[in-house]
What we know:
The protein is an alpha/beta fold.
Amino acid sequence: MPNEIQPAPADAHDRYAIVVAQWNQSVTGVLLEGAVATLRGAGVADDHIDVAWVPGSWELPLVAQRFAEGGEHAAVICLGVVVRGETSHDQHINRGVSLAMSQISLQFDIPVLFGVLTCESMEQAVDRAGGAHGHKGQECAEAALHMVGLLKNLPAS
């Protein structure tokens, strides 16, 4: 039977950063509430959750990078909403933001969670912020907790 590595339990001493876009705040605020509630439910105290608001999803990576390079946080959760419009603007934002977050995660060896809803309409965004299609804020916080615990149990590089 193979050796399956399981995540360590959540540690109350770990700090989490959440970067959230103000654009489409009616949805991103709900995503934030879900992420914070999930972290609290895992025993993370409010004073170990740092939240930074940025103007829009395009600005998420810069602040995520600052949190990651600071070395104080176990994970960075990024929350935003990009709704498709009449131009290809959304595609450029989504591609740039997703690639940047991936690079930050690998560069600083820290989980950077992509909680940016990339939707065709606001209705789809609402459905993914606690509606018919789950809650991306909660899901990102759950993934952050899982990854932090898993990295603790993986062999050092």
